[in-house]
Amino acid sequence: xAISETYAKWRYRLVPDHVVGELLSKNWIDNxxxxxxxxxLLIVFGTVIDNFFTFGTFSTMLRQxxxxxxxxxxxxxVILAGGIDLSVxxxxxxxxxxxxxxxxxxxxxxxxxxxxxxxxxxLCGLINGVLVGYLKLRAFLTTLATLIIISAIVEILxxxxxRDVVMYTPDSKLWDLLAAGTVLxxxxxxxxxxxxxxxxxxxxxxxxxxxxxxxxxxxxRSAYNAGINVRGTVCLTYxxxxxxxxxxxxxxxxxxxxxxxxxxxxxxVTVLTAAVLGGNSLGGGRGSVAKALLGTxxxxxxxxxxxxxxxxxxxxxxxxxGALLVAVATDVRWLKNxxxxxxxxxxxxxxxxxxxxxxxxPGSGSPYEINDRLAxxxxxxxxxxxxxxxxxxxxxxxxYTGSRHGDIVRFFAPDYTxxxxxxxxxxxxxxxxxxxxxxxxxxISGMGLYKVTPxxxxxxxxxxxxxxxxxxxxDSRMRFADDMDFAPDGSVYFSEATIRYDVTDWATDSMEGxxxxxxLRYDPKTGVTRTVLPKRMFPNGICMTGDGESLFFAETWAGxxxxxxxxxxxxxxxxxVITDLPGYPDNIRRSSDGNFWVAMLGxxxxxxxxxxxxxxxxxxxxxxxxxxxWIYPNINTGGxxxxxxxxxxxxxxxxxxxxxxxxxxxxxEHKGYLYLGGVFNNRLGRLKLPNADPNFNDRALYFGxxx
Length: 707
What we know:
The structure is a single chain. Helices cover about 40% and strands about 20% of the residues. It is elongated, with a radius of gyration of 33 Å. Helix 4 packs parallel to helix 9 (about 190-205) and helix 5 (about 90-105) packs antiparallel against helix 6 (about 110-135). The protein has 2 domains: about 15-40 and about 60-345, ABC transporter involved in vitamin B12 uptake, BtuC; about 375-460 and about 475-500 and about 515-705, TolB, C-terminal domain (Neuraminidase). The chain has about 700 residues and is an alpha+beta fold.
């Protein structure tokens, strides 16, 4: 091994390059910069301010947050929908004045007064919502105009009633609670914030209307095409923003009991800074409640600490303006370049040295010698199927296969000219097997392990497993369930080809050469799924050996077949059985003579085998060569290989021309015929096998007299 290759081997073994791509792909990475800023501010102010880390300090900040956060949450909703609300400061000031006017001057009951103020805030938001949402006026200019108008109204009212509204204070426990109450030492208004924040988080992430807001902010045209009421959704966000801003004004009135023309002045800048500084995107469609809370805490921490340092008043505005400028610039540049950077680093090739492929040359004497035996296979369902990756037979010899449209299609015996959609599951059905009760088990890419009863009821069995410890990838959810088989105890062993990519990007996994896949076990007694074999190179082809203790599974990109013992004295061990396959192995099935069939979805080439030893070359390849040129040129010769339990090759069948079955991902022997499936083929295939058992049905190997 050359020095450069030795270096590449250890460098990529010791340095997990894929971690960078995984980190950049996480939604929470947007919070990295604001969290860093928060930590930096805590360190700086904790150093320069005496007794900074005290309960009193943070209690005061939380009380200030209680008022400001309500306004920030309303602004966040508007921003999520792709808008902006500059009128929040004036609505806040109006609510403050109206609260004092109703409770102090008119002396209405506290609860009635608060409800009336909230209605006025909702009305202000409704005006903005109608103008922006329904009349499609510019949000910036529209809310700027309403800011000026409402501010003028507040100034007029304040000039007339400024002294009258502060001459009386309501005698109410509720009012006192809003003003200075605490719950376990925490300011009551901040407790209200937490309750509303949790409710808003649930609304945005778990409810349809909340999803609509994010969808509208992401793309209004797409949201409209999807049937979402775009105008109504935009209007709703402004109404909620008005309510939240008015409630913040109520809290402010309770705390200070004062009204002045400067109330709420510049609040829109503070609120906008908090929303954007937390990581909410001004472009809409990207943000969260947590980001709003984070940004608000940073702003309150900054402003209150500057006051304690007795900095001149202009410094607050200067720093807030600078923070807003930095936040906007970061948002624009990060949003623009994050995906560009992610596209360059997410695909992370590593070093892999494949075993030399056995020869397929005619006349070489190799058991893999190329031939054209599959040219005799007849087509079934030509142009009636799309993505028939696997197939299975019921007791009446009907064929079941999947399609990329999420359907399971049934072809009726004996001639298989008639077909119907047996069940619609979704995703893309891949590996299929019938159990002893006639239920069809299916591995569904993007969804997990499912079962379809004879009555066509679709039942989800497993869509998550235990998360790997110390893994940067959240691999608890299943992305690419591929193939399965039944163990003697009734449990189901199935493969997940890769945890990094879905079925549309399966070829990308071939460029990495790392163990992104795993083998899992589903226990029907407990309904629990657990990972039993992690870090495998695109595993599939799960097939029991017949000894009740082990199974075969293929590792496609490694070009090998392994044997795994799940019971007996060798439990937990894995043994490579065939390591020099000339193609990429896929599904494995039992044969009538006690041996095993394995499908070849494509042929290995010396060039790609050499490239597997050069991670940097493959990285450049993924960036400069079209996606369809990576692995697809190798998918040009479909093949099937038979081997015995010890890995000895018995025979091979090829489609040399690549015309009838250019890609074979599965096969199943049934009553004297070998049936073929291919995830990219528009047909199934059937080949007469000489000397095969005309009564063989592989289900009988598992469930006795199954016919």
